[in-house]
Amino acid sequence: MKYKDYYNDAYIVDLSQKIKTVMPDFDEEYFTRTLTGRLDDRELSARLDFIVDAMQQSMSGSYEEHLEAFSRMYGPVLTGPEGMFQYGWWLWPVGRYVERRGNDNWQLSLSFLKELTRRFTGEFAIRPLLKAHPQEVMDELIQWTADENVHVRRLASEGVRIRLPWSRKLYTALDEFERYTVILTNLKDDPEKFVQKSVGNNLNDLYKEAPDKADFIISQWEKSGQSRAQEWIIKHGRRNQK
């Protein structure tokens, strides 16, 4: 089953009921009427945008009020590195909404995404925040690299990737290279493969844009010895190098 197929008519009814529970003024009838029977011919990105368009038109109140309501809807924390798309996929339109409007209140959005990513990824929604407030957001991500939750640590890395799949290129890693290096360095010995893969993919992206900078990061790591995690990350990062 393709990801896009999860976002069907049954999903729209279920999502509308969830939102209505935490947002009494939500226009559930308009939301479902606008979307029902009109999703099948759309690809994933278009479906998500269509859902968010209808969501915005069905909500009253401020952006801050919307995030407060959504925070009461998004369910239990994932217990391990798996399950992001298995259990949290239904939250993607919420993340898409924050991706669209996050800079209305970027500090609140960042806090919201830290909680959202414990249930579903915030890697797409955080990128507009990084673009608009690179230093402040990366300073916060540096703190996240020490978080006990694997999904928060993973987001600290995944969100700053230059070539994140399903997303536009983001060059904050190059513009704020010192902070970027700190993020990857803090995670180079992470015990979770879920995080290691993200750090390796960061290096792989960096090799495609600025290989000298990727080599610099690795050379700095090697000065302090290597762990098994670090060795795997470097191998994964260099997988396309001849």
3D structure, described in words:
The chain is built from 15 helices and no strands. The protein is mainly α. The radius of gyration is 19 Å and the shape is elongated. The two termini are 36 Å apart.
Layout of helices and strands, plus pairs?
Layout: H1 9-22, H2 28-35, H3 44-58, H4 63-71, H5 84-87, H6 92-101, H7 106-116, H8 127-132, H9 134-144, H10 150-158, H11 172-175, H12 177-187, H13 193-209, H14 211-222, H15 228-237
Q: Count all strands and give the number.
A: 0
**Uncertain parts:** none
Class from helix and strand fractions: mainly alpha
Number of helices: 15
Write a brief caption for the model.
It contains 15 helices and no strands. It is an all-alpha fold. The mean pLDDT is 96.
Descriptive tags:
single chain; mainly alpha; 15 helices
